[in-house]
Amino acid sequence: MTVFNFTVKDMLMNDVTLDEYKGKVLLIINSATECGFTPQYSELQKLYRRYSGRDFTILDFPCDQFGHQAPGTNEEIAKFCTDRFSITFPLFSKIEVNGDNADPLFTYLKSQKSFAGFDPAHPLTKTLDDMLSAANPDYKNSSEIMWNFTKFLVDKGGNVVRRFEPTAGFEEIEEAVVKLL
Fold this sequence. Notes:
It contains 5 helices and 6 strands, in the order E-E-E-H-E-H-H-H-E-E-H. By secondary structure, the protein is an alpha+beta fold. The two termini are about 20 Å apart.
């Protein structure tokens, strides 16, 4: 079983089989348009522009499960991403990443890589830790996605090799992508 065994929905609700990405390094993210991490779209687009010609792509799945920070329709989300951040990497249909209605792709991703820990130097880490600890004191031992802009790095064979929490620095992410290319 690899990421390439899954079928997902694009923004127009058409089926997309992920095997069309065989041979590419993937960064699969759950995103939100009204989150404190939303400015990461700029860094993600830079990363995509820099390496898309070298068998790399980003697959973006909006998710409204964290503070209802991804409101709107698929069309509204796509318009926001292109108008505000000039996103050119693939955007997919809004999904759930945790719970009974979690998209099977994200259930698989979480089964491969559990919570990786927040960067202690990031300014939002304390806020996230306080909030998540109040809801679940043992959240750090979970495979659940904790917040928007969690990223899973997938090698050219479809294997999940790393998970980055939203506080991870883009230098670290870029270094990991380049190693797989």
